[in-house]
Fold this sequence. Notes:
By secondary structure, the chain is an alpha+beta fold. It has two domains: about 110 residues, no CATH class; about 30 residues. It is built from two helices and six strands. Strands 1, 2, 3, 4, 5 and 6 form a six-stranded antiparallel beta sheet that branches. The termini are far apart.
Amino acid sequence: MLRKWPSLQGTVVSCTIVKTTQARVRVxxxxxxxxxxxxxxxxxxxxxxxxxxxxxxxxxxxxxxxxSALLLEKIRGNESAPSSRMQxxxxxxxxxxxxxxxxxxxDHGRSYLVPVDDPGKARPFRTGGICVIAGLLVATGSRxx
Length: 145
């Protein structure tokens, strides 16, 4: 749905990679009894912080979403650096750059710069694909014996 949003040209004000945190709610599994209180955990992550300007029907808007899906990467230790994918995305949007801005036709204030697949959705498909291939190999191998 987001990929079908109309686009127009906007101007990048800033785009950087920042260290921030992602808050997560953790609810322990219980057997039968009442659920214990949830706890909150904050994981350090890399994120793209963007600001860009665009105009729809003569009205100016400021956007902040660099990508169509929230793109975060866990920070693992002090030596961690953002991935080359994240760095190349951020480098595309230097201040003053003209860029395509995709905006929601129902709410012109909602927008993003680059459509990306949700990284969380890719993992189950990859795992499923690996399982299918492994199953085919086992089935083929058993017929050969």
